[in-house]
Amino acid sequence: MSAISVFGSEVTKARSVRSTYWTVIVAVVGGIALGTLLTATIVATWDQMPRMQRATLDPVSISLSGLDVAVISLIVFGALVITSEYSTKQITVTLAAVPSRPRLLAGKALVVALVALVAGVIVSFVSFFVGQAFFASLDMQSSLADSTALWAVLRAAVLLPLIALIALAVGTLVRSSAGAITIVIGGIYLPGVVAMLLPAWARDNIYPFFPGAAVTNLMHPDDGLWARSATGAMVILVVWTVVLLAGAAAALVRRDA
Fold first, then answer.
1. Around Cβ 90, how many Cβ atoms within 10 Å?
2. Using alpha carbons only, how large is the chain's radius of gyration in Å?
3. How far apart are CA 246 and CA 251, in angstroms?
């Protein structure tokens, strides 16, 4: 089966599964709604906030604060693209139709990346515009004409397909929906808790290279260290994505269905 046929087949499968629609809807609607709610709350309580706290608030980051909902939803989507086939035993039929297993994974990865990218663009840009409409009442709104704001919104949009691809890779490796979702969500959010217990040198030189730290640094960069900068975090997250997908492809080739 040609690469185009594989891609078309994966698109058809994704469209035929109800979970695809639900996870994407929750990602988009939930991400925008939470960001809007948090932004509206901050604007409404602005006068009661301490002056120091007001001075450190970033209107763009606040507008994008609902992104965690989209991240978790698209982790579920990315994992289910492959693990649902293992749970229903459909993977046997799929592998018989597509003997080239790396091509099969590439087709799935392309579908996951495109769906997550579209969702990411919608969530990021809509959240930004809605959030800045609220901050306009305080005369604090940002514009996409500001390269810093535009770069932040674009990073948020690109983050979602990378996370979804990581979930696809982990799902391929563990072949379990619950296992893959737990590993990826835990791998993103738990290391930050553990890092607080580490000595300073480990937090600065080791922790930033974990995927969870890269996600945080991508959205809240610190230009003091390369690994904590937006560019460094993007590179680290891309490397994790590529390595995990390569490992998933190798495992898919070696193992039986």
1. 13
2. 20
3. 9
What percent of the chain clears pLDDT 90, i.e. is strictly above it?
Answer: 56
Pairwise CA distance, residues 170 & 175, whole Å: 8
Please give the tally of structural domains in the chain. 1
Convert the pLDDT of each residue in 72-129 to its tens digit.
999 999 999 999 988 888 888 888 888 888 999 999 999 999 999 999 999 999 999 9
Nearest partner of 63 among 121, 132, 160, 156, judged by Cα: 132
Contacts of 245 (CB under 8 A, 6+ apart): 105, 109, 165, 168, 169
Which of 221, 46, 59 lies closest to 129 in space, CA to CA? Answer: 59
Report the alpha-carbon distance of residue 106 to residue 6 in Å, rounded.
9
Residues 185 and 163 sit within 8 Å (Cβ to Cβ): no
Alpha helices in the chain (DSSP H): 3-16, 18-25, 31-44, 51-56, 59-63, 67-87, 90-97, 101-135, 147-174, 177-195, 200-205, 211-219, 230-254
Instruction: Return the pLDDT at 4.
Output: 83
Q: Which of 58-67, 96-105, 127-136, 194-203 is predicted with the least confidence, judged by mean pLDDT?
A: 194-203
- Count the neighbouring beta carbons within 10 Å of the beta carbon of residue 211: 21
Q: Which two tokens stand for residue 28?
A: 């988009």
The CB density around residue 75, as the number of other CB atoms within 10 Å, is 29
Highest mean pLDDT: which range of 15-29, 211-225, 236-250: 236-250
Total length of the chain:
257
Residue whose tokens read 């994704």:
14
Is the pTM higher than 0.85? The answer reads: yes
Domain span at residue 54?
3-254
Greatest CA separation found in the chain? 64
